[in-house]
């Protein structure tokens, strides 16, 4: 399973990218607004840092507006993927853009039906939102599991990005479903790397090695 980072914060992206674990970045209008800066400039900067797919979201909700924004954003760099909301006009946009060779990430997916529609329209990615489903008492992981099973059964090429990830268990559970990607917030990457036994184990190794003779350099 590949990892994307779910942020528009350049420092966070640089730090996690320096670990060598990132295959892409997802942004959304909320993340962009938290970060500040000029939207197109932020997306360009991100696309130069991470050599993987960078999702940039349209804000129009009508077909011609979405197509116009998508075509402009796609010009920023070859690794830009256009995030399109899961609405009727969005499906039409995905279908047209896919025929133009512009890759898409259908966002705000909360059901198997929506994921199937997106895949049939030619989406490159679908993003089921786990945390937001959990918030309303439904199971985010069950949705990802169902979509992964069905896409595999039928051989869809559309990749699954498990999104709205809130804790480490989400990441580990998603990995068992066969989903292609988890898009993970910075804070959770920092939690993922930690284990108290790693810290105490390293401390002990370093202490013990103080008693070891080494060759003079
Ligand atoms: C994914 O593409 C979305 O940007 C993101 O995962 C939404 O997460 P949230 O529900 O924590 O806002």
UniProtKB/TrEMBL annotation:
Pfam families: TAL_FSA. The active site is at residue 83. It is found in: Cytoplasm. CDD domains: Transaldolase_FSA (cd00956). Gene3D superfamilies: Aldolase class I. One of its GO terms (biological process) is pentose-phosphate shunt. Its EC number is 2.2.1.2. SUPFAM superfamilies: Aldolase. Pathway: Carbohydrate degradation; pentose phosphate pathway; D-glyceraldehyde 3-phosphate and beta-D-fructose 6-phosphate from D-ribose 5-phosphate and D-xylulose 5-phosphate (non-oxidative stage): step 2/3. GO terms for cellular component: cytoplasm. It comes from the Bacteria. Its main location: cytoplasm. One of its GO terms (molecular function) is transaldolase activity. Keywords: Cytoplasm, Pentose shunt, Schiff base, Transferase. It catalyses: D-sedoheptulose 7-phosphate + D-glyceraldehyde 3-phosphate = D-erythrose 4-phosphate + beta-D-fructose 6-phosphate. InterPro entries: Aldolase_TIM, TAL/FSA, Transaldolase_3B, Transaldolase_3B/F6P_aldolase, Transaldolase_AS, TSA/FSA_arc/bac. Belongs to the transaldolase family. Type 3B subfamily. Transaldolase is important for the balance of metabolites in the pentose-phosphate pathway. This is Probable transaldolase. It comes from Peptoniphilus faecalis. The gene is fsa.
